[in-house]
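Last lecture ended with a question: if I hand you only a sequence, what can you say about the shape of the protein? Today we answer it with a concrete record. The protein is Ribosomal RNA small subunit methyltransferase H. Below, first the input exactly as provided, then the predicted structure, then a couple of comments.
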Amino acid sequence: MEFSHKSVLLNETIENLNIKEDGIYADLTLGKGGHSKEILKKLSPNGLLIGLDQDKDAIKAARENLKDFSNVLYFNENFENIENVLDEAGFNRIDGALMDIGVSSYQIDNGDRGFSYMKDGPLDMRMNKDNELTAKQIVNDYSLDELWKIFSEYGEERYSKTIAKAIVDYRKMHEINTTLQLRNIVMKSVNTSEAHPEKRVFQALRIEVNRELEVLENTLEKIVDRLNKNGRLCVITFHSLEDRIVKNKFKEMSKKCICPPDFPVCVCNHEKKVKLISKKPILPSKDELKNNNRSHSAKLRVCERI
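The predicted structure:
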């Protein structure tokens, strides 16, 4: 299956990266390389693009899409390993980075990857197919309370306990192996007119499988610490949990003091690292919303190293 993905907030991201033609930039969620291609068009041969993706299929697709450019380094790595990647590439600091968080169109559209609740496939959901934990293991092995917790926290699902109980009851008789099997269990367990009540459950499982929120929270400051002065970090998110993490982390890094308000003097010794370029998130244009359905929940936040 062809790796297709329409880059969201493309123009806005490229504009906000403030690209220098001889700079070093990192695309931490390379995908097919849509954002990277536009960065490379603005770079001279002395500039460099470092591309990371934990999905081997994405690296393969990006190599093909960016084959006309020689100033690219590819790393089949999760962006939480950015420090090791930069050390291996021989760079202490870079001039900018972007993150396009979440699942790609290819991963959703390829039923065999197990991300889609619209296509039947194995309950997988691993972005890195070398990782051990799969969605199948979670739905068959996690306790009622563990399932309830991830559906509630990562899916913000109001019927979390009901759905978790339905899964636990079903698996007493049959192993849950496929996406449509899970979808049917969820749909039968909740009384709602909502078109896709399983959507939030699939989101929660995907986040748990790939440790998405934990990795995001742990990585943002690592990237900022490796930016040159005036280097920018652009982050595109697709749901409120991700956006909240980015918003709060950017806000924290933009403050001189993070002591509780009732402290008489500052004792935190916190270092202000960034200024906020976008105090409110940048949203897709009307044209993009019309032409790219998957842009509807997208938000872009930008900060600059000081």
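Comments.
1. Residues 65 and 196 are 34 Å apart (CA to CA).
2. The domain at 10-106+212-305 is CATH 3.40.50.150 (Rossmann fold).
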